[in-house]
Description:
Oligomer: single chain
Order of helices and strands: HEEEEEEEEEEHHEE
Number of helices: 3
Shape: globular
Strand content: 35-45%
Largest sheet: 6 strands, antiparallel
Amino acid sequence: xxxxxxxxxxxxxxxxxxxxxxxxxxxxxxxxxxxxxxxxxxxxxxxxxxxxxxxxxxxxxxxxxxxxxxxxxxxxxxxxxxxxxxxxxxxxxxxxxxxxxxxxxxxxxxxxxxxxxxxxxxxxxxxxxxxxxxxxxxxxxxxxxxxxxxxxxxxxxxxxxxxxxxxx
Length: 168
């Protein structure tokens, strides 16, 4: 999805420009491709809070991420959908088939060093499916949070440090 990658690239360029001009504390959100730099000084927090929305109800928060000097991107099969002869299709194309990916991952949220990196990994992990994606992410130390087609949420040990525990 070159549109998503281009969006991530644009965010990363703006981050570099702002840092070159001396800015430290800022948040850039380009339609869900986000870079959180420094602190949320407006609210007095030492990091930025970013919701992971429920794909079946965007008004429902599944988790809250606490981010500082990292990017986050979510990709999924729940948006940009259409029907072809009664079959649901989506914009995540599996390069092996040239068709909408058949996957048990509804959405994948990834934290990364850059927005392009987070975007590419979110799409890749979503396309390859939960089982392979968890192995891929663990081997590469990629923080990931999935929502699966059975409504479950799954995240790996590398995502844990970014998850805000509201009970603490």
